[in-house]
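Hey, I'm writing a tutorial for new members on how sequence and structure tokens pair up, and I'd like a real worked example in the thread rather than a made-up one. If someone can provide the structure for the chain below, I'll link this post from the tutorial.
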Amino acid sequence: MARVVDPDGLRDAGTNLQDVSDRFLTELRTFLADLQGFGAPWGGDDIGSLIGAACEEVTAYAAECFESAIEELGVVGVDLNRMAHLIDEDERAVAERLAGLGQQLG
């Protein structure tokens, strides 16, 4: 019977997702720090203050959304690694039980 699930593939995918998540989060934080470095280029008058407030709110909301999605990618990576581990454990247990049955029958 062909193997339907590849634990090594799951493990690799999980590790890769965790790596991508870590790198993406680092890049996002670097980008946000760069944005902070610009200061308030819209000025301090009434219109500039309104633009600044809107820009800060939109940036904060977008950053929160991105961080949440990025963290979820990392969680999926951990879950894939755990799934691969559980599949390996199940296969070992099935092999041991079948070997035990073979000894009892044989």
